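Holo prediction — iron/sulfur cluster.
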Amino acid sequence: MRKEEQIRACYHALLGAWGPQHWWPARTRFEVIVGAYLTQNTAWTNVERALRQLRSAGLLNVHAIQTVPLRTLESMIRSAGYFRQKARSLKTFVAFLNDRYGGSLTRMFAQPTKTLRQELLSLNGIGAESADSILLYAGQHPIFVVDAYTRRVFGRHGILPENAPYEVIRQLCEKALAGISAQSAVPVTKTENQEPETVLAVHRPSLMSLAKRSDVAQVYNDMHGLIVRVGKHYCLKSKPRCEQCPLRPFLPS
Ligand code: SF4
């Protein structure tokens, strides 16, 4: 099977097993952006704690992040780790947004994908995965997000080596998923070895996950969310749980 066909087969198998995963868990575009910064090198549970702190302090907006003293911001996001670096990066982002787009996310996201991606990548504290998460999940731009789970699954299935360059993986995924209609998802079905709770356990849709987006952006969104679920619950680093994984039929012999 060609690499593109393998990826498409994985997408259909996962979507058929679990249905859409409703990413990203956030209420606003700005919350997605803050989450994309905070989630670098840490577990999402730590990010959630930091986001709760920011929300209850009324700091989850562009103006508040711009004006809050750096030390206060650092203490609010401490649970997310690398808090000094992340606080500075968030300040850098809002300064960029204000200078370049008058503080308007709508104006920023109206830029062509390639242009805005270059601008985001030129900011301190933002790599390809974070830039693409912001573009896809906050801006609804059609760009695939590659993460460590994608690398692990593709490596174990012989699709690409785990250390393949980010751009190679991203472009392969985009090519493989091109032309799929987001509405073509088959109904969720239970497979022989699948644990019953995994069939039912679908995340509650967040406001951002329900945002209007193109078909292609929806497919990238669904695929990334599904891979996250595989990586978190099945394709574990030291001991993969292949017996219960919907991708087991696609393992190389
Ligand atoms: S758990 Fe096994 S079957 Fe599932 S993605 Fe990982 S290697 Fe493949």
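READOUT: Confidence is low (pLDDT under 50) at residues 196-201.
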